[in-house]
Design brief:
Helix content is 34%, strand content 21%. By secondary structure, the protein is of the alpha/beta class. It has a 7-stranded mixed sheet with strand order 8-7-16-17-18-15-21. This is Phytoene desaturase family protein.
């Protein structure tokens, strides 16, 4: 039996703790916040009409088998804890210039039919060809990357890639380039580009291999958890406590002790004595680990290319708008949005809030999260991270957040969804707020910008492991949960 300390009670930390406790280890979790869940945040706003409940982080669950596997590995059944609701449409895409919207779904033939009805037979045939390629990329990734450690480019190069896999993955090609090669309809290209933002990246620079992201969503479905996705954090906490995990909130780890090439424990704020540990699992951003908790200049050097962040509005809306669960309202000029978000420090162009951004609106048809006759809107806009460098924006600047909130509502109105006279309230969450609430540096949602190589799960000291969205295999709830499986398998059982 090893004494294991998990730093951070996000989904990755709780999933790792549950797996390790189920195999006989003594596990303690320290969380700096007063609640568990990390970026899987929640917010409640009370009004005379009733209470509105919001997920302030992820709003879609994909790859449900990953979560079934997690609960079964810890001696339970997912359905005993969570109520999964399949979504159709998974996402409603609303394109500029009017014309039909496109509803995605988990039936490939049906989705192709919907594309054909909206955009014509050629567009449907284009998508089916891209879909076959995406399937090869997904199968190769799932087989060789997503469930094993990848510590360096050498590990990727040593994989026994099949010739067809390499051709599909197209090393050196971007997701944008892949779309332009395969898709003739500009609206389908725009839809494909959007998936780069799932990893916090610019589609003009993101690798073509990210075509596996829409495949995973559309092949295995998109799901909602009744009561909100925050119920996943509740379920994982319950699982941990039932397995004997000690979970301490309001406990900030300030240092990982590691001398002689291995970890010995952690230091807590306000506590003199160190907490001994044989193994430390860090469920915090890799940049925070190597900058603050265990300074390591060489590993820190590769973490400067940060992912995009998000600007969020939480809206209480009276009446019904007829929106789908997930809706994407695209701009006329997608490139202008990415130019604004990432800037171009090399040419002295600073990042800035996009003037005409893509707007994501999530509206759960769930009486558990809003009063009757009302809707709880989660509105997300891609945004530069918090900071004062050229590639960031100081979201704490007086008046900026409220002014940009007005802009986002104006953009929605221009795209046919004007709710400005139906708002009971609005709450604003900027990248600076996400940084403060979760410790995500600059409010970057996914750590470093997306790519095949993420910071390794294996730390530079023996007994140190990293899990979560900033590490391999990447961001998003299923990838974070797979990082927990990878680390727990590497640590191994106590017996």
């Amino acid at each position: 039996m090893a004494r294991i300390v998990v730093v951070g009670a996000g989904v990755g930390g709780l999933a790792t703790a549950a797996r390790l406790a189920a195999t006989g280890h003594q596990v303690t979790v320290f969380e700096r916040a007063g609640t568990v869940g990390g970026k899987l945040g929640r917010y409640t706003h009370d009004t005379p009409a009733g209470s509105f409940h919001f997920d302030t982080g992820p709003s879609l669950l994909t790859l449900p088998e990953v979560f079934h596997d997690l609960f079964e590995a810890t001696g339970a059944k997912l359905d005993e804890y969570l109520d999964l609701i399949p979504l159709d449409p998974i996402v409603r895409h609303v394109f500029p210039g009017g014309g039909p919207a496109l509803d995605s779904c988990a039936d490939p033939m049906e989705f192709a039919t919907r594309i054909g009805a909206a955009f014509g037979d050629r567009a449907a045939a284009d998508w089916q060809r891209l879909w076959r390629r995406a399937a090869r990329v997904w199968n190769a990734s799932s087989r060789d990357i997503l469930r094993r450690t990848v510590d360096s480019p050498r590990d990727l190069a040593s994989l026994a890639w099949r010739v067809g896999d390499l051709a599909a993955i197209a090393p050196g090609r971007t997701l944008r380039g892949l779309g332009r090669r395969h898709l003739s309809d500009p609206r389908l290209r725009m839809m494909l580009d959007r998936y780069a933002t799932y990893t916090g990246a610019d589609p003009r620079r993101a690798p073509a291999a990210l075509v596996a992201v829409p495949y995973a969503e559309l092949a295995f479905g998109g799901w909602y958890l009744r009561g909100g996705l925050g119920t996943l954090a509740d379920a994982l906490l319950t699982r941990c406590l039932d397995l004997g995990v000690v979970v301490q909130t309001d406990a900030t780890v300030t240092r990982i002790d590691a001398t002689g090439g291995r970890v010995h424990g952690v230091r807590l704020a306000g506590v003199t004595a160190p907490v001994p540990a044989d193994v430390v699992v860090a469920n915090v951003d890799a940049l925070t680990v190597y900058r603050d908790l265990l300074p390591h200049p060489r590993r820190l050097a590769g973490l400067t290319d940060r992912s995009l962040a998000g600007f969020v509005l939480l809206l209480g809306v009276s009446g019904s708008t007829g929106l789908a669960h997930h809706n994407v309202f695209f701009p006329r000029d997608y490139d202008a949005e990415f130019d604004a978000i990432f800037g171009d420090p090399g040419r002295g162009v600073r990042a800035r809030p996009a003037a005409d951004p893509t707007v994501f609106v999530t509206v759960a048809d769930d009486p558990m999260v809003r009063p009757a006759g009302h809707e709880a809107w989660f509105v997300l806009v891609n945004a530069p991270r918090q900071g004062t460098a050229a590639g960031a924006v100081d979201w704490r600047r007086p008046g900026l957040a409220d002014a940009y909130a007005d802009r986002v509502l104006d953009v929605l109105a221009r795209r046919g969804m004007d709710v400005r006279d139906r708002l009971l309230f609005r709450e604003v969450r900027t990248p600076a707020d996400l940084d403060a609430a979760t410790g995500a540096p600059g409010g970057s949602i996914y750590g470093t910008a997306g790519g095949l190589l993420r910071p390794a799960n294996r730390g530079p000291a023996n007994g140190l492991w990293l899990v979560g969205g900033s590490t391999h295999p990447g961001g998003g709830l299923p990838m974070v949960t797979l990082s927990a499986q990878i680390v727990a398998d590497e640590i191994g059982p106590a017996w």
